[in-house]
Amino acid sequence: MSVNPTPFLNLDRVIHEKGRLAIMSLLAASPELSFTELRDSLSMTDGNVTTHIRTLQEAGYVSVAKTYQKNRPLTTCALTPDGRKAFAAYINLLEEIIRQTKPK
Q1: Three-state SS annotation for 37-62
Q2: I want to staple 83 with a disulfide (CB 3.0 to 4.6 A). Which of 31, 61, 72, 77 is the partner?
Q3: Is CATH 1.10.10.10 correct for 6-95?
């Protein structure tokens, strides 16, 4: 059996890191989530979530909005249209990898 390495080489490195993949997955399933919801859902530290969100934001995949709710700061995150496209492309590549490595 021969495996085509191209899909592996094309995996988006920004998304592929497990913390960022988890954030992207949660955001793909929801219109937006608060920083606290992301942190608590993933059992990550504030610093870890902040670093991953910053990387995703710099890539143009996540938008961050800072507002106030009941006089308290509220940070919410959402996938951008480019983020949705990148995540869909990433999932499609994973499916391609699975298809070509699955025993027939």
Answers
A1: HHHHHHCCCHHHHHHHHHHHHHCCCE
A2: 61
A3: yes
72-79 vs 33-34, strand pairing mode: antiparallel
| Domain assignments of the chain as residue spans, ordered by start | 6-95
Smallest CA-to-CA distance from 38 within 64, 76, 71, 73 is with 76
Residue 12: CA count within 13 A, CB half-sphere: 23
Distances (CA, A) of 42 to 24, 49, 58, 70: 12, 9, 21, 25
How far from the centroid of its chain's Cα atoms is residue 21's Cα?
Answer: 4
- pLDDT for residue 1 is more than 60: no
Per residue in 74-99, pLDDT (tens digit) is: 999 999 999 999 999 999 999 988 88
Q: Could you report the per-residue pLDDT of 24-71, keeping only the tens digit for each?
A: 999 999 999 999 999 999 999 999 999 999 999 999 999 999 999 899
